[in-house]
Each structure stands twice: as C-alpha cells, then as structure tokens.
Amino acid sequence: MRHRCPPGDTHAASICQAPAPPDGRWSEASARELLRAFGVPVVPAELVNSSAEAVRAAERLGFPVALKVCSPQILHKSDIGAVALGLGTAEEVRAAYERTRAAGERAAPCGVDGVLVAAMRGPEGRELFAGVRLDPTFGPVLAVGLGGIWIEVLGDVSLRVLPVDAAEVHRMLRELRGLPLLAGARGHAPADLDAVARAVAAIADAAGSLGGTLRSVEVNPLWVDGNRIEALDALVVTEGNGAP
Fold first, then answer.
1. How do residues 23-44 score in pLDDT, each as one tens digit?
2. What is the three-state SS of 42-56?
3. Which of 27, 72, 78, 115 is buried most deeply by CB count within 10 Å?
C-alpha cells in the first residue's frame, strides 16, 4: 500500500511513494522523515554510525546534544541505557556513542540503524503529547494533552476522530485542564496555540496518510516555547508489507 501525500510537495512524495514498512514499529529516523514530509517541525538531528561522525554532528548541531540508538526493535531506549542526554563536550559524545550503541546492539539482535545525535531543548519549553491510534470502533483517533510524564500522571487529554483541521485542534487545546500552563504560567512564554494547532494537525495528516496500515503515530514530547515548536521523539507503528 502506498501512502497518500500532500500535493505539490516533492520531499513528501519521496516518503509517500515508498511502500509501507514491515509489520511493527518504524525506526525513529523513518518516523521523523514521515513527520517532516507533512510539515511537522522536528528537532534537528543526524543519524551516525561512528563516534567520529557523532562528534562532527554534535559540532554542527551545537552542544549540548542527546544521543539515542535508532532501531525499530527498541521501544523504551532509556530503560536499557540506549539514550544519553545533555552531552556538552566531544569527549562526552564519543563515550556516549560507544555506550549507547553497545546497549542497543545487545537489545536488538538484528542490529541497529545507527545513533541519532539530536539538539537538546531546554526546560523553558512546555511538553505536549500528540498521537493518533487506530480505535477498533471509531477508526483513527487523535489525542492531545500535556506530554512527557504528565500524560500518564494527569490523563489530561482531548480526543477527536479523524479527520481534523487546525481549527478543531485549537478547540481541543482549549479543552485541556492544563491550558494555563500553555498560557504563560509561572513566567513561561505563552504558547502560540495557532502554531501548535497547525503542528498537531500536520501530525494527524501524517497518520492519515498511512491509510489501512496505520496502528499508531505518536509524538511525545512535542516541545513548545512560544512560537517555537518541535517534535522531540516520534513513534510510528504500522501493519503492511515491504521495506521502510
């Protein structure tokens, strides 16, 4: 099955014309590319396969950086030591690359795609969750709420059946009990809710493009600092045939 893509977008077409990946989880690198194809702002990152490449990537992105093993076989990377955060020097990046790569290869018998070197984002931003899951009754359902650990602790989530547009996502955001946190509470910059709504609607469009292969598309967290919005982590799960 081919993915539907936005008309007139040549970068999107390069993603959407690829066959659906095998049953199960996509690698984070592939998930990032799907989101980018639909206009979702994604934190800058590079996929590398050596400690020297990791250092060069970190220098291009700017310290500090985060390292994450990239493999569709690994879901909870932090649980196995396959993530390193806040790396501020080349020496820290080299050591973290070897450590996280080794942890990933122990956990992924078929090997890993590489290690993602990603720019770090500071605590000044707010974290949201935005995801689409296939409900057996209603079909694809979009969920939006406070992200990070808060999605599990507070359960403050607004739901809609797809399709949705940015205006509907804006209404979803205003339903959240945590809305004051986005409005600039405790000295934080107020979130640009229009920009957030556009980003979340783009995530929903990316999920919808997967058609009958969709099982879930999740961004957690979606980092928001005023009008700066970036997906920091992405998960895509499908059922289908072919290669990613």
1. 588 999 999 999 999 999 999 9
2. ECCEEEECCHHHHHH
3. 115
Within this chain, do residues 226 and 206 fall inside the same structural domain, yes or no? yes
Q: 138-172, pLDDT tens digit by residue?
A: 999 999 998 866 666 677 899 999 999 999 999 99
Is 221 within a domain?
Answer: yes
Range of the domain at 186: 10-20+33-42+125-238
The pLDDT assigned to 183 comes to 86
Last residue of a domain, one of 89, 119, 149: 119
DSSP assignment of 15-45, as one string? HHTSBPPSSEEPPHHHHHHHHHHTT--B--E
Asked whether residue 37 falls in the same domain as residue 143, the answer is yes
Rounded Cα distance, 32 and 41, in Å: 9
CATH number of the domain at 103, please: 3.30.1490.20
What's the CATH number where 179 sits? 3.30.470.20
How many CB atoms within 10 Å of residue 185?
Answer: 12
Residues 88 and 142 in one domain: no
CA distances from 66 to 59, 70, 201, 222 (A): 12, 12, 27, 16
Do 104 and 160 lie in a common domain?
no
| Lookup: tokens for 218 | 């999740």
In contact, 160 and 175? CB cutoff 8 Å: no
Q: What angle do CA 137, 138, 141 make, to 5 degrees?
A: 130
- Mind listing the pLDDT tens digit for each residue in 88-97? 999 999 999 9
Beta bridge partners of 24: 238
